[in-house]
Amino acid sequence: MAPRVLILTASFGSGHNAAADALAAAFRAAGAGTRVVDHFRELVHPAFDRWSRRLYDTMLRRAPGLWSLAYRTGDRMTPASALTFNANRLGSARGQCQREYRRSANDGAEDHGGSRRGMRKAGKDMIP
User: Are residues 38 and 58 in the same domain?
Assistant: First the structure.
């Protein structure tokens, strides 16, 4: 059975989707089945999706320096950082991420854990 890959993205701007599409294409070319899921559109509450998009748009238009600072800070943070305010767990409290994973797992998706080690394993398993 061909391996399957679940790719989570966020359609804020076009960069995340472009990266997700490129990953999906590379995995498909290597023979894996792929599924791309927009975390904000499909896994969090619609009100949070609207609020976060409004905040993103407002920051880009009215406070680009603040957005730049937040972006640079985010590049240096670990997932366990208190500065994430558990935003990296959005959707998981109500089990949406787990349900999405299980749904994909039932289709034969593999769990590589999302960790660096797991992602390296995924790369070794998926790309010749």
Answer: no
